[in-house]
User: Which sequence fits this backbone?
């Protein structure tokens, strides 16, 4: 039920962090893995990291915000492997700037990468999924798909939008046997969160005291959810956001160690 042998998966932004961990989990279930990023050098480096786990990853450089680059990159993957069966829209970025200080160019850049790009990449991949009888789309959402926070307006707008883009993908494509779902990671230890994960930082204190599991998530914590949503096990799961967050969304105000 969870076997991905013979399936081709594209994980956008698979050069590190959550994308790499998800790619490794899908490879472990048998899928052929393709990843992109923006830099050839970083893609070369990541090939050897995958290689250490015995994974022969196929890499192609393209920027997910450029329709022309996405078209060229996906064409290269399709000419090598045929249709993409599993698409993980993972590439993303964040800017932590209060709204009154945020230039509109910065706001637009976050929306472009975190929201418009999943639209661009999915639109390019789905026609071939349809002609091959179906596929799986996994959009990497966030706690910020449901909550706001000071300083992350563009990110919250994008990830909230991505949650409903997932619902809309489901409404338009489920009839073609394409299951579109999302994963909502909690606070995960990657380069994206390095600056706010240091001892004594108020955000680090918040994560450590408010997460019922009592720790930051590791990127590997997301692997099981990804395999589930990429496999036949989820063939009637549509438009769902699966939160993998150590319980933080279930908790309003609980501080670890205090019995109040
Ligand atoms: P990360 O370590 O910063 O990795 C981001 C990845 O996205 C890199 O592989 C990067 O590739 C790629 N990327 C960024 N912009 C791109 C573009 N324009 N075109 C192509 N690739 C691009 O971040 P992460 O923490 O693993 O986050 C991955 C996803 O999970 C993001 O969507 C993020 O919002 C989401 N998320 C993260 C957390 C968390 O706590 N870390 C929680 C919830 C959701 P190159 O730099 O090599 O080009
Ligand atoms: C931050 C953001 C995100 C979160 C994640 C929560 O780093 O400031 O809040 O990166 O870690 O999106 O799901």
Assistant:
């Amino acid at each position: 039920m969870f076997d991905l042998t013979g399936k081709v998966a594209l994980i956008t932004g698979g050069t590190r962090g959550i994308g790499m961990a998800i790619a490794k989990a899908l490879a472990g279930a048998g899928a052929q893995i393709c990843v992109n990023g923006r830099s050839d050098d970083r893609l070369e480096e990541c090939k050897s990291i995958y290689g250490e786990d015995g994974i022969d990853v196929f890499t192609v450089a393209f920027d997910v915000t450029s329709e022309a680059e996405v078209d060229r990159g996906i064409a290269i993957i399709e000419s090598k492997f045929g249709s993409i069966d599993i698409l993980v829209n993972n590439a993303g970025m964040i800017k932590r700037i209060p709204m009154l200080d945020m230039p509109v160019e910065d706001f637009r850049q976050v929306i472009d990468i975190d929201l418009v790009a999943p639209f661009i990449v999915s639109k390019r991949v789905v026609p071939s999924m349809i002609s091959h009888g179906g596929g799986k789309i996994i959009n990497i959402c966030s706690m910020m798909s449901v909550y706001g926070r000071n300083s992350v307006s563009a990110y919250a707008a994008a990830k909230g939008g991505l949650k409903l883009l997932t619902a809309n993908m489901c409404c338009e494509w489920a009839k073609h046997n394409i299951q579109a779902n999302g994963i909502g990671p909690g606070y995960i230890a990657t380069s994206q969160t390095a600056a706010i994960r240091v001892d004594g930082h108020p955000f680090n204190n918040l994560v450590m005291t408010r997460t019922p599991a009592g720790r930051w998530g590791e990127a590997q914590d997301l692997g099981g959810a990804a395999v589930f949503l990429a496999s036949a096990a989820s063939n009637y799961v549509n438009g769902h956001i699966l939160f993998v967050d150590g319980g933080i969304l279930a908790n309003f105000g609980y501080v670890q160690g205090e019995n109040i």
Summary: The chain has one domain: 8-188+219-251.
